[in-house]
Amino acid sequence: MPTRDESLAVTLSIAVALLVVLLTVIAAAVIGPQPSTEGGPPGGPACAEWTDECVVCRRTPEGLACSTPGIACVPAAPRCLRPAGVPI
Fold first, then answer.
1. How far apart, in whole angstroms, are the C-alpha atoms of residue 83 and residue 45?
2. pLDDT for residue 34
3. Which residue, 87, 10, 83, 7, is CA-closest to 47?
4. Are 68 and 55 in contact (CB under 8 A)?
5. Are residues 57 and 45 in the same domain?
6. Are residues 9 and 26 part of one domain?
7. What is the largest CA-CA distance in the chain?
C-alpha cells in the first residue's frame, strides 16, 4: 500500500500532466492555424531560402525544410532571404 506522500505525488503528477494537456489545447485554439509553407517562396524556384517572419524555409537535397514557428508568431508577407545558386 502506498504511503500518503507517494499517493500525493502520483495525484500531483497526474494533475500537472492534465494541466499541460489543457494548456496545449487552449494555446492551439488561440494561436489558430500556423502559416502555410506549401505555397512556396516569393519568386518560385529562383529563391532557395525564404521567411514570413514566423518560419524560415530552405530547399535542401532531401526536400523542403522549415523551422518551427514561435509561440507569438505574426506572419508577414513572404520574402526571399537567399536566391537559388547562392551558397549558404
1. 9
2. 47
3. 83
4. yes
5. yes
6. yes
7. 68
Report how far residue 41's alpha carbon sits from residue 61's, in angstroms, rounded to the nearest whole number. Answer: 16
Q: What are phi and psi of 28, to 5 degrees?
A: -65, -35
Q: What domain range includes position 6?
A: 1-32
Let me know the angle formed at the C-alpha of 30 by 11 and 27, rounded to the nearest 5 degrees.
30
* Side chain identity at residue 37, one-letter code: T
Whole-model pTM: value is 0.51
Q: pLDDT-based confidence at 30, cuts 50/70/90?
A: low
C-alpha cell belonging to residue 2: 502506498
Nearest Cα residue to 80 out of 44, 37, 35, 36:
44
